[in-house]
Amino acid sequence: MANFFDPSLPGTADPWGDEPPPPAGEDTYGNVVSLTGKPVETKEVVPALWQSAGGWAEVDIPKRPWIVPGYIMRGSVTVLAGAGSAGKSSLVKGWMIAAAFGLTYGRFRIPVPLKVLSYNTEDDLDEERRRISATCRQFDRSPTEIPETMQIIGPDQIGTLITRDPVSGYCVPTRAMVELEAMLDEFRPDILILDPLVELHNTEENDNTGLRAVVAYFRSLAQRYQMGVVILHHTRKGATAPGDPDAVRGASAVVGAARVVFTVCPMSEDEANKCGVDIRQRRLYFRLDGAKQNYAPLDGAEWFKRVPYVLDNGEEVAAAEPWIPPSPWDGVTWPVIDEIMAQIERGPSPGEFYAAAKQSKRWAGTVIMDIACRSDAQAGTILKAWIDGGVLVPSTYPSPSVNHRMAACLHVDATKLSEMRREAADHG
Questions:
Q1: Using CB atoms within 10 A as the burial measure, which of 107, 140, 201, 245 is most buried?
Q2: Handedness of CA 270, 379, 395, 407 (dihedral sign)
Q3: 59 belongs to a structural domain
Q4: Residues 341 and 312 placed together within one structural domain of the fold
Q5: What CATH number corresponds to the domain at position 203?
Q6: Of 290, 323, 356, which residue sits at a domain end?
Q7: Looking at the domain assignment, is residue 58 inside a domain?
Q8: Which residues partner with 407 through β-bridges?
Q9: Which domain holds residue 386?
């Protein structure tokens, strides 16, 4: 754990003023020293290694100290990385309200209300209140109901918490960090949220040694106060692959020093097509993916949608709500299926039949798109399922449009269609 000068020590009255405190760090023996090498305080030497000899009973192994299973663990750091305006701040507001009230927020499940402290360097108090108020609306709560176990804080000026001396490499807390630690001593939160990482330190972002020390400092806070620390961070410029740890901006040590890492990515055009979302509305949707979850991986993406709420002051503010992508089969009833099958069997024109290949002008997916109102990606999913299930059978026929040369086509297998209908009835 990084250390710092104690203002109560002789000769250090008001040591900071408007400047950061003088660099200090630990020597080989665990003493806090100045850059001159002179000890400024002593402490009990802590062994550098732990040791286990022989076997053990499994029942005696403590369970992992999850605060929110899969998301936040006591004594550890969780990093939430995404591009600017990707949705990570809105998402964390949902986490905060869910934690404070002990509510479920998508897969983020809180067994009991928790104490939450959020430090935000980008938004002032009024903006924080706007966004948290909108978030409360989706939980059918009023901001007046927020318990004192949820606190939001921010800097009056510069929000830097740690300065790292480029010569010694020691991490030194600023006045803001000292005040924050005093709050931690008194408040003892279960979760500390820090937003964003780039504003919390003065280290060069690609400096692996420096960033490792910075994140390790916050991890030491997590361990000392037995809380989970959530740090919001940015991804690199350009397209981000969901769940890619290499997309996290700057030094790889950020990912290495964290226990759980997530990426937040806006919906892509291809995903919008697969989900049947209007391409002009896709920026309202974003996904959360695990990029490094050592202990409890989430299965698949978790989706959210920005929903606007009108506050009592008349302003419209968006909040992130959990969203489940619709299945391509939603609303595809048997009357709709019967109409699609009849049209495929008739063909697009006299003597012609529909084909399985998407590049064909006779693609059968267009029938599904027109009748069932599906996107082309959704239609492709349905069409493939029917072909794989044997309801639609690939064949060939002499096509009039190409001088009666043989061309690929699809025909409906009436027997398989009846079997599919019976199976659907048996399953309700």
A1: 201
A2: negative
A3: no
A4: no
A5: 3.40.50.300
A6: 323
A7: no
A8: 397
A9: 334-426
In a domain, residue 55? The reply is: no
Question: Which two structure tokens, joined as six digits, stand for 103?
Answer: 């509510």
pTM higher than 0.85: no
Mean pLDDT of the chain: 87
Structure tokens at 264: 């937040």
pLDDT score at 8: 42
Cα 186 to Cα 148, 182, 296: the distances in Å are 13, 6, 31
Rounded CA-CA distance 269/280 in Å is 9
Q: With contact defined as beta carbons under 8 Å apart, do 6 and 32 qualify?
A: no
Amino acid (1-letter code) at residue 112: V
DSSP SS3 for 175: helix
pLDDT score recorded for residue 293:
60
Domain contains 350: yes
Q: How far apart are CA 240 and CA 334, in angstroms?
A: 40
pLDDT score for 428: 64
Q: How many CB atoms lie within 10 A of CB 46?
A: 7
Beta strands 116-120 and 191-195 are: parallel
Helix 334-346 vs helix 414-426: angle between axes, to the nearest 10 degrees?
170
Q: Assess whether 216 and 342 both reside in one domain.
A: no
Same domain for 319 and 340? no
To which H or E segment does residue 217 belong?
helix 208-225
DSSP calls for 284-310: GEEEEEEEEESS----S-EEEEEEEEE
Nearest-angstrom CA–CA distance, 133 and 126:
10
